Amino acid sequence: MSTDDITNDLTRRTENAPQELLTRAFFFFCAVLSIVTTVAIILLLTTEAAKFFDVTASLLDVEGQTVAAIDFFTGTTWQTSTGDFGVLALVTATLQIVIGSAVIAIPLGVATAIYLSEYASADLRSKLKPALEILAGVPTVVYGFFALIYITPALERVFPDIGFFNMASASIVVGIMIIPMVASISEDAMSAVPDELREAGYGMGATKFDVSTGIVVPASISGVFSSFILALSRAIGETMAVTVAAGSQANFLNPLNPASYLDSAMPMTAAMVQLLTGDVTGGGLAYRSLFAIGITLFAITLTMNVISDAVAARYREEY
């Protein structure tokens, strides 16, 4: 590199120094803002939820009614009008949504990802993938009405005893909703697998199906599993679709019992919507239960994301 080149490079760097500094400051501000927002949400949920539980009432100088944490986390009845705040009735309904939507979204999402990554041509993939991701842009309340108008009547033909509001319809529509997330993230992970691995499989006489399921999927398992966790986290936090389709009756159901999907229930997010839209006194016990549900939902989602990161780090392949 000549002296003139070095001089020109230094001159260019000096001229761009203010712009580089401004850009760096902007991105730093965005990063700090994200962290501050997250911390503020955690502090809000923790502080308000603590006022709901009597174990911290004396520390926070809370006046009025409180609920024991053991009763909240082990109770099976949720009826705010009678003072029953058993969150298990809401947690089991949320678990039903997660299990039901997973049964639908995981196999369909992975199969779609395999087709896009291994079978579809580049031109077809460029058209199908954006079309698939359009599903993620549909408002969730539209999914809820879709479940009521189309899915529930179809289920009634097979199960005459099913209620108008039911967990099966809510699970199906949430499963449809999260298919694009599973398919898109899984397809990205599969596309990152080097072609050398595929060619090695073909060289040993493997079929395309054998290469897809026996080489590509195992090699991208960390990304595929991460898509499962992220999609199920979305299912846990889904609000309007389950509020419309599942109903507003808090019932303690067995998530592992298929017959319970014919009944209505109220997931945690639906309970929060009902409390917010109802006649709730600010600062009252029912109002504070919103934050107790919120911190429970936050803890479940955070745990799932931590598990996702741990599994992804454990099984990540570097090529």
Largest beta-sheet characterization: 2 strands, antiparallel
For the record, the count of structural domains works out to 2
Report how far the terminal alpha carbons are from each other: 34 Å
What series of H and E elements makes up the topology?
HHHEEHHHHHHHHHH
- Detail the poorly predicted runs: none
**Spatial shape:** globular
What percentage of amino acids are in beta strands? Answer: under 5%
Number of helices: 13
The CATH first-level class of the largest domain comes to Mainly Alpha
What's the total number of strands?
A: 2
CATH topology term of the largest domain? MetI-like fold
Describe the structure concisely.
This protein has 319 residues and is mainly alpha-helical. The protein has helices at residues 3-52, 57-60, 69-74, 88-119, 122-133, 140-158, 167-191, 195-203, 208-219, 221-237, 240-246, 268-277, 285-315; strands at 78-79, 84-85.
Verbal overview:
The chain is an all-alpha fold and 319 residues long. It is built from 13 helices and two strands. It has helices at 3-52, 57-60, 69-74, 88-119, 122-133, 140-158, 167-191, 195-203, 208-219, 221-237, 240-246, 268-277, 285-315; strands at 78-79, 84-85. The protein has a two-stranded antiparallel sheet with strand order 1-2. A hairpin with a 4-residue loop joins strand 1 and strand 2. The model has no long low-confidence stretch (mean pLDDT 81).
